[in-house]
Amino acid sequence: MSKGLLNTCEELYGTKDLYELFSIDKKASEQEIKKAYYRLSLKTHPDRVPEDDKQTATERFKVLSKLYSVLTDKDKRALYDERGIVDDEGENEADTWKLRWQNLFKPLTDEDIDNFMKSYVGSELERTDIKKAYLNGRGCINYMNQTVPFMSCEDEPRVAKIVQELIDAGEVPAYDAFLKEPKAKRDRRHKKYAREAKLASEVKRQRDEESELSSLRKQLAVRNQERKGTFESMIASLEARYGAANGDDDEEEFVLESAKKSRSSAKKAKATTPKATNAAKGTRKSARSAKS
């Protein structure tokens, strides 16, 4: 038995309450837990954060995977509900968190993320996440940028309006860290965001170029294969048409020799019968004269 996982959860997510973290009811079904896990995973997936934040994102992702295994295991969940502790013994960090994601969900694509963003931004779910991040970070906008999905410097005016509505409604306190943020701190955040956006654009450009190059290589490989097949087919056709005659020299020589011998025999036969031929001509001439 261990409370280490819950302590790590509090350090990374600001709470030990798993149901609060997943934004679900204590009687939530396994399907509801799965949906919540997927939504939270999108926030911290290591492939979706800048290089400098990958280590932290990886740790958050690992912890989230373990917490999901607690809530979807009947015995572990009952132990947590009853005593507020989790059994995280026997977990192999090297393979469980990645395999669990791969087994539960298909590989993420840019289209998947874009579709989720369209349904998320401006939704009640985003409002809930903004409220939670505001409270957990005590109004720190840097913290909110890191924990609210898809939030960037460009979204700050829109998010500030939502926070002000929450303050006016008495749902959250008015933190000076949010309402009176120093200009120097804001400028540093915006410069960092600009650098990361430029880097992300460059990475995307390189990835697109690599993808295009890979596609071109595949096309060239297919064309070369087609040309090779065409050439081999042409050679086979030529061999079928001319190969037998060119490959049977003995037979060709025999045929030519036979033809020569036939012509020679004919000449000799003609040379040895001139008298018989003349006699035949004289007979035919006498017969014509008699008729006359």
From TrEMBL:
One of its GO terms (cellular component) is cytoplasm. Residues 245-292 are annotated as: Disordered. It comes from the Eukaryota. Residues 271-281 have a biased composition (Low complexity). SMART domains: DnaJ (SM00271). Residues 261-270, 282-292 have a biased composition (Basic residues). SUPFAM superfamilies: Chaperone J-domain (SSF46565). Keywords: Phosphoprotein. GO terms for molecular function: heat shock protein binding. Residues 17-84 form the J domain. This is J domain-containing protein.
